[in-house]
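Run folding on both entries below.
>entry_1
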Amino acid sequence: MEQSARQFRKRSAILDCLRSTKSHPSAEMVHDMLHDEHPDISLATVYRNLSLFKTQGMIRSLGTVNGVERFDADTHPHVHFICTGCARVMDLPEVEVPQELNQDVEKSSGCRVEGCQLTFTGLCGRCQAQ
């Protein structure tokens, strides 16, 4: 198989992996999820493609959780909850990003808001039960 076809296959696998999970994985987690099916995929390849996808707006970074960058293939505005106990990242589809928040920021700063990531932190139900 020629090199560009292998690169495309790996790139596709990385993006498909992100799109098929709600776990908001790190690069290492993506690498681990793909390793059985693609044993020749390197962690450097995963990092390089995640950076490319992020630059192209195909995915977004949720920032770091316990020092590790986490990613989301759902680029639509939505709210997240990050558990400070187990590092689980969850979507909160029932909570909307308040549009008036963007307007308040624009009014007070004089800047134009192009996006907002709203993230709550605390303990998830599982960690509270422990």
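>entry_2
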Amino acid sequence: MTDREIVASGGCQCGAVRYALYAAPEGSVCHCRMCQKATGGLFAALAKLAKADLVWTRGAPASFRSSGAAFRDFCAQCGTPLAFRYLDAPHMEVTIGSLDHPERVPVIQNFGVERRLPSVADLAPGRLPDKTTAAIASATRDLSSRQHPDFDTAPDWRPPA
């Protein structure tokens, strides 16, 4: 490892892959079609940092070469999108949602805006009705989390049965 200070950490939903960041990342949103497909969402929320400032601390991600210029890293066990990296750049991005504290990475710019979906504007507070998870829960649904917690755990951690 290194004696540098960890400033953020994150990982996949199942806990098989974890990472540490040694610099504060810069948040952005990419609306390009590749990012929409890679995340299965309206856009990708990404946090940019130097490649040298990321260390995989548990497991290793699988990779998909999504274009001639870039790879997308993900957990092979649970499918969580984890990172995007250009082959020829000194920086990369981790997915903001995979960070243990995504609220600490403000989004400061948009990319790929030519493919921004019109419904993204409706996400602004007050534009659509808001409901909490508890408000949509059903007495017959088990909503207890089986995902890895938002902090590092012992290597033998397993989700509750």
